[in-house]
UniProtKB/TrEMBL annotation:
This is DUF5304 domain-containing protein. Residues 1-21 have a biased composition (Basic and acidic residues). Pfam families: DUF5304. Residues 1-23, 130-163 are annotated as: Disordered. InterPro entries: DUF5304. It comes from Streptomyces diastatochromogenes. The lineage of its organism: Bacteria, Bacillati, Actinomycetota, Actinomycetes, Kitasatosporales.
Length: 163
C-alpha cells in the first residue's frame, strides 16, 4: 500500500469554498440584521404589543392613576373612604374588562386595523381637499363669481362639497 493520498479534485475544493462563503454571507447578514434590530429597539423602545395587550396596559395605567388620585374637594375626613370607593370601582372595571380581552384578543387587533383604515381614508380626503384649495384658488374664485351672479350659493344653508 502506498502512503500517497489521492490528489484532491479541484471541483470539490471550489464547492467547499462556495458553501463556506455562502454560510459566511448568511451569518454576516444575520448578525447585521440582529444589530440593526437591537439599535432600533434601543432608539425607539420595544415594539408595541397586540391591541389586546395595549388595552390591558391602558386599563392598568388608568386604574393606577385613579387609585392614586387625591381629592381635595372631599377633605381629610372623606378622603380615605372616597379613595376606597374609587379603588373598588376600578377593580370592578378591571374585572369586567379582563375576561373580554382574554376571550377576544383578535377582535381588538381587527378594531385597531379598522381604525387605521378609517384614519387613512380621512387623511386622504383632507389632503385631497387641501390640494384643491391650494392649487385651484383662481378656479374657485371664478366658480364662486359665476354662482353668485346666477343667485346661487348665497344662503346660509349652502351645502359645502367636500369631494
Amino acid at each position: 500500500m502506498s502512503d500517497e493520498r489521492p490528489a484532491p479534485d479541484p471541483a470539490e475544493e471550489v464547492k467547499e469554498e462556495r458553501v463556506t462563503d455562502a454560510d459566511a454571507w448568511a451569518t454576516a447578514c444575520a448578525e447585521d440584521l440582529a444589530a440593526e434590530k437591537a439599535r432600533r429597539r434601543a432608539e425607539q423602545g420595544p415594539p408595541p404589543g397586540s391591541a389586546a395587550e395595549e388595552l390591558r396596559r391602558l386599563v392598568d395605567t388608568v386604574a393606577d392613576k385613579l387609585s392614586g388620585l387625591q381629592s381635595p374637594l372631599l377633605g381629610a375626613v372623606a378622603g380615605p373612604a372616597a379613595q376606597q370607593v374609587v379603588r373598588q370601582v376600578v377593580q370592578q372595571a378591571k374585572a369586567a374588562v379582563e375576561p373580554v380581552i382574554e376571550r377576544n384578543p383578535d377582535v381588538f387587533d381587527h378594531l385597531a386595523a379598522a381604525g387605521n383604515e378609517l384614519l387613512a381614508a380621512y387623511r386622504s380626503a383632507v389632503q385631497a381637499q387641501e390640494h384643491r384649495w391650494t392649487t385651484g384658488a383662481d378656479d374657485l374664485k371664478d366658480d364662486w363669481t359665476d354662482r353668485r351672479d346666477r343667485g346661487e350659493g348665497t344662503g346660509p344653508g349652502e351645502r359645502i362639497d367636500l369631494d
